[in-house]
Amino acid sequence: MMTPMIPPILNFATGNLGGAELVEKSTTLADLQGLFADPHAEAVLSPDTQLYRVAMLPGNGGEGDLNMGVTYLEAGRVGQEFFMTRGHIHARAEQAEYYFGLCGRGLLLLQDMAGVCLLEQVFPGSVHHIPGHVAHRLVNTGETLLSALAVWPAIAGHDYNAMGECGFAVRVLAGEDGMPHLVTSDQQGM
Ligand code: PAN
Ligand code: ZN
Q: How does pLDDT run across 48-100, given as a tens digit for each residue?
């Protein structure tokens, strides 16, 4: 009698991924040097501060295959600016992606090729379609870990330079009440 295999397990309540050998990548503040608006606030924090990690199921990376990974983005701020992922557009820019909110609260910042930004709330159960040609970044606006599941074509790749010097046109800062508010990246007084 054939015994059914136990596949990898995603705990949708906690975001924990297990039951498989995972490929993990961790990103620290030093890795994102200069990305946050306030260099003085950045200098106060340890460069080793871990901002996020991504745990991925190993894929074969071939044409037609899909990648799946969970991003765990810490809660915290650099000055007034909430912790966020570096953000990217896919190297094969036409390739789309899905994000699914697992735990915590945050925002998904989307920016199209014309520089037009759109924000979606991320929360447990939220579903986000990221079309091709749209740059994307997660922002943790809550007080707990934000985790989100992502599924994208293995051939998509990541282009971290395509956004150029200007990067995303919108930043997410905490107001005096701690609530997120948006400023355009060229706005002063951050
Ligand atoms: C995600 C991201 C992950 C980390 O898996 O790669 O959230 O963000 P950065 O890649 O911008 O550092 C995804 O969008 N994959 O395509
Ligand atoms: Zn992506």
A: 999 999 999 988 879 999 999 999 999 999 999 999 999 999 999 999 999 99
Which of 17, 54, 83, 134 gets mutated to test ligand 1 (max ligand atoms within 8 A of its CB)? 54
Cα 110 to Cα 58, 131, 132, 135: the distances in Å are 26, 9, 11, 6
pLDDT of residue 59: 80
Q: What Cα–Cα distance (Å) separates residue 113 from each residue in 129, 131, 151?
A: 16, 11, 22
Protein residue whose Cα sits closest to atom 13 of ligand 1: 150
d(CA 73, CA 51): 6
Stated pTM of the model: 0.95
* List of residues 6+ apart from 108 with CB closer than 8 A: 99, 119, 120, 121, 122, 128, 130, 136, 137, 138, 139, 148
**DSSP 3-state assignment of 84?**
strand
Whether residue 189 is predicted with pLDDT greater than 90 in this model: the reply is no
